[in-house]
Amino acid sequence: MRNTAKLTTAVLAAGALTFGLSACGSGNSSGSHDYSGPLVVAASPTPHAEILDFVKKNLAKKAGLDLEVKEFTDYIAPNTATEDGSVDANYFQNQPYLDDFNKKRGTHIVPVVTVHLEPLGLYSHKVKKADALKSGATVAVPNDAVNEGRALKLLADNGLITLKSGTGDEATPQDIAKNPKHLQFKEVEAAQTPRSLDDVDAAVVNGNYAISAGLKPAKDAILLESTKNNPYANFLAVKKGNENDPRVKKLAKLLVSPEVRKFIEDKYQGSVLPVTQG
Prior knowledge:
This protein is α/β, with parallel strands linked by helices and about 280 residues long. The protein has helices spanning about 45-60, 60-65, 75-85, 95-105, 145-155, 205-210, 215-220, 245-255, 260-270; strands spanning about 40-45, 65-70, 90-95, 110-115, 120-125, 140, 160-165, 175-180, 185-190, 200-205, 225, 235-240, 275. It has two domains: about 40-120 and about 230-275, Periplasmic binding protein-like II (D-Maltodextrin-Binding Protein, domain 2); about 120-225, Periplasmic binding protein-like II (D-Maltodextrin-Binding Protein, domain 2). This is Lipoprotein. It is a lipid-anchor. It is found in: Membrane. Belongs to the nlpA lipoprotein family.
């Protein structure tokens, strides 16, 4: 999603390994939890499930890990399934989204290890450059709180709109202070933003959904999120108390291995960026 810079350790300090998180608070701290059987991980199809499938086929057996991947196409079910124990972990989200989800739904999901970043992008079937959008153009944005705010920040960072002073991660169109092109915003489910491209003038699309739709963020986006000081890297997460599950620790180590880094770099060609661990 634009000319992406190499991520640095400093940029991704917030995404460092968090194996030391407290194991209390989930009811499993007594050690009674059964950690036998396969590790079941909920994941978005692209790139998360693809990365996990690479681990399963190439690295898991040697590490003594029995890994099962369950694909979800929305941003809600993976966390609720992790909370209720239907799955053991998930891999699909970033910290601002998780913070908002835990706060609003009373869940207790925590990050384990940060793996990659998918830059958010603005795409269009009608114009080649963002400044070519006409007055009154309609722009589709994700309708969940964090991704909508992230989408509006992308537009603001590139001068299409100005957000009110002090606006945070949960910005909505009501937080727009200046809108010189009189852009109209169509709020749709994040997974539907690529499909909306034929019906709107442009759409802000999450990296995983862009790739699933055959878009190449590094080439096709007319605006691409910067990696600098970006808090939206994606991580493996579990319900609090399960951070010390030996299966989770094995997977966390594999997800930041040189083999996975190379797989991400080779397969996604800059549209998905592996995180540098410090």
